[in-house]
Amino acid sequence: MAFQFVHLESYSRKPDSKGRSTGFVLAEARRDPAASIHVPSPGTPVVIYGVTPEQVESLHDKTADAARTTPRAGKPRKIRVDQHTLLAVVASHPHTVEEVHADPRKRAEVERWEELTVAWLQRLYGDALVSVIRHEDESHWHLHAYVLPQAPDMKAATLHPGQMAKAEVMAVGPGVDEDSKILNRRGDQAYRAAMRVWQDSYFDTVGVKCGLTRLGPARRRLTREQWQAERTQAKALRNCLDRAEHVQQKAESFIVRTKTEAESLVASAEAEAADLRDEALTAKAESSRQMEAAKAATAAALAAQDRAIAEQRRARSMMSRVRKEAGRVQKAAARIQRLPSLLRTLWDGFRVSRLQDRIRQSVDDEMSRLREQAVAAAERASAADVARKAAEEKRRTMEHSLAEVGIQRDAAWRELAKIRPPEAQPSLSGRLRPRP
Questions:
Q1: Is 387:301 a contact under the CB 8 Å cutoff?
Q2: Measuring CA to CA, which residue among 34, 130, 15, 151 is closest to residue 82?
Q3: CA–CA distance from 338 to each of 186, 296, 342, 345 (Å)?
Q4: CA-CA-CA-CA torsion for 103, 109, 111, 117, nearest 10 degrees?
Q5: Is 88 helix (H, G, I), strand (E, B) or coil?
Q6: How many CA atoms lie within 13 A of 178 on its CB side?
Q7: Which long-range contacts (CB under 8 A, 24 or more apart) does 259-264 make?
Q8: Which of 20, 22, 29 is nearest to 145 (CA)?
Q9: Cα–Cα dist 38/18, whole Å
Q10: pTM reported for the whole predicted model
Q11: Facing residues of 129 across strands?
């Protein structure tokens, strides 16, 4: 046996012709002795999704008691006890329980089958799927799933594709030259067609990936050789899909790892760029401070130069006054020398000599002071000029440093642009792959 098996049926609180009701079905699920006489050694069911069978029954009964249906032009009333309110799905795997317990490889296969089956049920029924359990006390590995309708009237028929398809046909009514039997036959055809679509959905989602065929050999009257060939083909298809999924997982893992590394590099580059920006701002602030200091030093040097020039001007003015005074003294001495009297000449000569000595001493002192002031002024002017040149050189150095920082910042941004991860674009399989 290597073909899929999945079955769907709905139940009401009132037993059907075979004695099956919601209470009986859930009692069988939890392996009550009265409902499990077909099982030689009943075991405890294993919940693989949702709640236990006991909780399913409690939730079902509370929901059914609260459910209401509103007839046309009538008041809401409780639903009938014979209305189907529980949907049950049975899915079985070809492996036996003994094979699964004895072979780790087969154990892995049924675990994969369980995972895909539960995902298929969740996609079909959403929140209405309340429980999936596994029985290991029968011959083959199989699952039971229980679905509770979410609508206020709690009609399980709305979740049964076959019943819905037949109800739509019956609601339209018989066509031309059709009686009730023909209409019912057409409804049965719609029922079977809808259930085939349901079975095909399970096959496409679960059966193909687990190496199961859609139909068994008896249904299609295949020979043993044809059946074996189809089984081999199904296994090959499953292996191919497994390899493709493995490759896809590796590709996704590589993409995630590459993306993580790229994000790390981007974060590192951004941090480095931030550090460079901080250094640039610090350097700019330092440059501004030094420029201000250079401007202040230049202004001080210019002021000192102006003071030195003023001192030089005062010294030249003083020298001019000294020369004028010396000229007047010489003229006075000449007039005195022209006097005929020797005494007067001697006396005047003595007086002139004393006056000249005093003038000469005064002029020498003044000239010495002026020379000292001129030398000091020249030294201050030279120092101011040196300071001004040093400030200009420092300013040029800072401008060059700022230019180099700008070049490093631009290089960092270019490196950041190179290592940004490529944008992802959807592939044919619906997953993302990197854009070349």
A1: yes
A2: 15
A3: 166, 63, 10, 8
A4: -150
A5: strand
A6: 15
A7: 259/421, 262/419, 262/420, 262/421, 263/421
A8: 29
A9: 15
A10: 0.52
A11: 147
Both tokens of residue 66?
């609260």
DSSP code for 111: H
Return the sign of the alpha-carbon dihedral for residues 380, 381, 384, 390. Answer: negative
Taking each helix axis from N to C end, the angle separating 161-172 and 180-202, rounded to the nearest 10 degrees, works out to 150
pLDDT per residue over 121-172, tens digit each? 999 999 999 999 999 999 899 999 999 999 999 999 999 999 999 999 999 8
| d(C-alpha 56, C-alpha 88), whole Å | 12
DSSP string for 199-242: HHHHIIIIITTTT-BSS-HHHHT--HHHHHHHHHHHHHHHHHHH
CA-CA distances (angstroms) from residue 1 to 97, 204, 373?
Answer: 14, 19, 122
Instruction: Annotate 374-397 with DSSP letters as a single string.
Output: HHHHHHHHHHHHHHHHHHHHHHHH
Output the CA torsion sign for 168, 169, 170, 171.
Answer: positive
Rounded Cα distance, 50 and 59, in Å: 12
More confident residue, 270 or 164: 164
Burial (CB count within 10 angstroms: exposed 0-12, middle 13-18, buried 19+), residue 335: exposed
Instruction: Quote the mean pLDDT of the chain.
Output: 81
Return the structure tokens found at 280: 């640039």
- Rounded CA-CA distance 145/29 in Å is 10
Is the CB of residue 142 less than 8 Å from the CB of residue 135? Answer: yes
Model pLDDT for residues 280-305, shown as the tens digit of each residue: 788 788 878 887 887 887 788 788 77
DSSP category for residue 3: B
